[in-house]
């Protein structure tokens, strides 16, 4: 690395360490910020010589990044931004801290994908899904898809691993290329992870006609855009690879959605030459991720934490949760997005018949939504009150970002 980059990298590591020592979080944002101030090209310098995978999408990127890191670990040491700091400051900090590793797997905020593609020149980019999120500030889904598509045009050599079940992702992953300028369309490997949420992809991003669906299949009623045949797919409790071989996947993470994340991780790792048969057992070693899916025993209750931040992830959480007493907690602080009107995009009917408790800064918004949805509930002021209000046994907790962090702190920052 050039001298300036070496200095920037060293200062970045020191700043992150100081921040950690001062008890101000993991320091990855401040460390990366200072490093990039000293050398604006630091992320590019730190990326040089590494084979990198980027993982982006609205939901599942933290979990998929962790699973992919485990899978690529078959080959050697892998740098990753394991604290979910998924913007360039976090990437810079993660690579500076890791020192020299042959591989890196980086979770990327979907808004920053173009910038991070440019800086890191990855070998692979995984595109998971696109759905509405943080209504007060996030881009419309179609605009996000357009940004991804435009970014990929400039990187025809990157290997794309993309979700065949999401029409917006399929469109974003298949820019036509430009033969006159010698630009090829990117090479895409498709995976199928299933998609429960369809409400951001009824309209074709190419031509504006409606998207028709039948079972797993979807197609545009006005143009050739349709679901590609996936090379990787979830089948029963395992994953089918492109050769047709089936691999049983035993995860410590719940739900079909995590099997889909496992399929994605195996597909990305395969782009580095990792055989699924070698990687699959490593996926089972991944337990909770920054508290997500963590289980804690407290006063005879087995409490499980599920993070859900937007309508698509709430649907997945209902599917993952056992039919057991369920605490819902909603905040609307800055990291959550300030607009809670998305609660009306979620169908809470799957909770009918369960004991439902609500809490959080915006519990009353949730109360109105549940009342309209015909789901009985009980309001509790504290997490402790919720634990006392349910019988011994499983308590499922579904919370959005800061509400989740509050509860995790009550449980002594469970991992
Ligand atoms: Zn169309």
TrEMBL record:
Zn(2+) binds at residues 204, 207, 220, 223. GO terms for biological process: cell wall organization; peptidoglycan biosynthetic process; regulation of cell shape. It comes from the Bacteria. Its EC number is 6.3.5.13. The keyword Zinc applies. It catalyses: beta-D-GlcNAc-(1->4)-Mur2Ac(oyl-L-Ala-gamma-D-O-P-Glu-L-Lys-D-Ala-D-Ala)-di-trans,octa-cis-undecaprenyl diphosphate + NH4(+) = beta-D-GlcNAc-(1->4)-Mur2Ac(oyl-L-Ala-D-isoglutaminyl-L-Lys-D-Ala-D-Ala)-di-trans,octa-cis-undecaprenyl diphosphate + phosphate + H(+); beta-D-GlcNAc-(1->4)-Mur2Ac(oyl-L-Ala-gamma-D-Glu-L-Lys-D-Ala-D-Ala)-di-trans,octa-cis-undecaprenyl diphosphate + L-glutamine + ATP + H2O = beta-D-GlcNAc-(1->4)-Mur2Ac(oyl-L-Ala-D-isoglutaminyl-L-Lys-D-Ala-D-Ala)-di-trans,octa-cis-undecaprenyl diphosphate + L-glutamate + ADP + phosphate + H(+); beta-D-GlcNAc-(1->4)-Mur2Ac(oyl-L-Ala-gamma-D-Glu-L-Lys-D-Ala-D-Ala)-di-trans,octa-cis-undecaprenyl diphosphate + ATP = beta-D-GlcNAc-(1->4)-Mur2Ac(oyl-L-Ala-gamma-D-O-P-Glu-L-Lys-D-Ala-D-Ala)-di-trans,octa-cis-undecaprenyl diphosphate + ADP. It is an enzyme of class 6 (ligase). Keywords: ATP-binding, Cell shape, Cell wall biogenesis/degradation, Ligase, Metal-binding, Nucleotide-binding, Peptidoglycan synthesis, Zinc. Residues 307-403 form the Lipid II isoglutaminyl synthase (glutamine-hydrolyzing) subunit MurT C-terminal domain. GO terms for molecular function: acid-amino acid ligase activity; ATP binding; carbon-nitrogen ligase activity on lipid II; zinc ion binding. The active site is at 339. Residues 55-167 form the Mur ligase central domain. Pathway: Cell wall biogenesis; peptidoglycan biosynthesis. InterPro entries: Lipid_II_synth_MurT, Mur-like_cat_sf, Mur_ligase_cen, MurT_C. The lipid II isoglutaminyl synthase complex catalyzes the formation of alpha-D-isoglutamine in the cell wall lipid II stem peptide. The MurT subunit catalyzes the ATP-dependent amidation of D-glutamate residue of lipid II, converting it to an isoglutamine residue. Forms a heterodimer with GatD. Belongs to the MurCDEF family. MurT subfamily. This is Lipid II isoglutaminyl synthase (glutamine-hydrolyzing) subunit MurT. The lineage of its organism: Bacteria, Bacillati, Actinomycetota, Actinomycetes, Micromonosporales. The gene is murT.
């Amino acid at each position: 690395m050039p001298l300036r980059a070496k200095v920037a990298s060293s200062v970045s590591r020191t700043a992150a360490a100081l921040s950690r020592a001062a008890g101000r979080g993991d320091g990855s944002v401040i460390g990366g910020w200072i490093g990039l101030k000293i050398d604006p090209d630091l992320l590019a310098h730190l990326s040089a010589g590494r084979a990198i995978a980027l993982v982006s999408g609205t939901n599942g990127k933290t979990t998929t990044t962790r699973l992919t890191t485990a899978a690529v670990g078959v080959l050697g040491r892998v740098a990753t931004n394991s604290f979910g700091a998924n913007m360039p400051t976090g990437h810079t900090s993660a690579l500076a801290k890791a020192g020299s590793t042959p591989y890196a797997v980086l979770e990327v905020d979907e808004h920053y994908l173009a910038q991070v593609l440019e800086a890191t020149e990855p070998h692979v980019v995984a595109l998971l899904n696109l759905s509405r999120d943080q209504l007060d500030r996030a881009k419309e889904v179609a605009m996000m898809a357009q940004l991804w598509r435009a970014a990929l045009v400039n990187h025809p050599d990157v290997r794309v691993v993309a979700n065949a079940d999401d029409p917006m992702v399929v469109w974003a992953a298949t820019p036509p290329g430009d033969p006159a300028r010698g630009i090829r369309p990117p090479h895409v490997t498709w995976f199928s992870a299933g998609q429960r949420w369809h409400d951001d992809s009824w309209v074709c991003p190419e031509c504006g006609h409606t998207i028709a669906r039948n079972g797993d299949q979807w197609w545009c009623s006005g143009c050739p855009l349709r679901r590609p045949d996936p090379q990787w797919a979830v089948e029963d409790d395992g994953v089918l690879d492109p050769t047709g071989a089936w691999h049983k996947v035993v995860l410590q993470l719940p739900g079909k959605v995590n099997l889909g994340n496992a399929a994605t991780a195996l597909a990305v790792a395969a782009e580095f030459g990792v055989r699924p048969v070698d990687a699959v057992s490593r996926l089972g070693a991944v337990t909770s991720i920054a508290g997500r899916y963590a289980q804690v025993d407290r006063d005879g209750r087995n409490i499980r934490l599920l993070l859900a931040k937007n309508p698509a992830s709430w649907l997945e959480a209902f599917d993952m949760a056992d039919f057991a007493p369920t605490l819902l907690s909603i905040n609307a602080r800055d990291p959550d997005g300030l607009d809670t009107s998305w609660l009306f995009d979620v169908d809470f009917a799957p909770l009918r018949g369960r004991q439902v408790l609500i809490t959080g800064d915006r519990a009353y918004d949730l109360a109105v939504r549940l009342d309209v949805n015909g789901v009985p509930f009980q309001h509790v002021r504290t997490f402790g009150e919720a634990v006392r209000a349910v019988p011994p046994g499983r308590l499922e907790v579904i919370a959005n970002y800061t509400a989740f962090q509050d509860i995790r702190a009550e449980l002594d920052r469970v991992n």
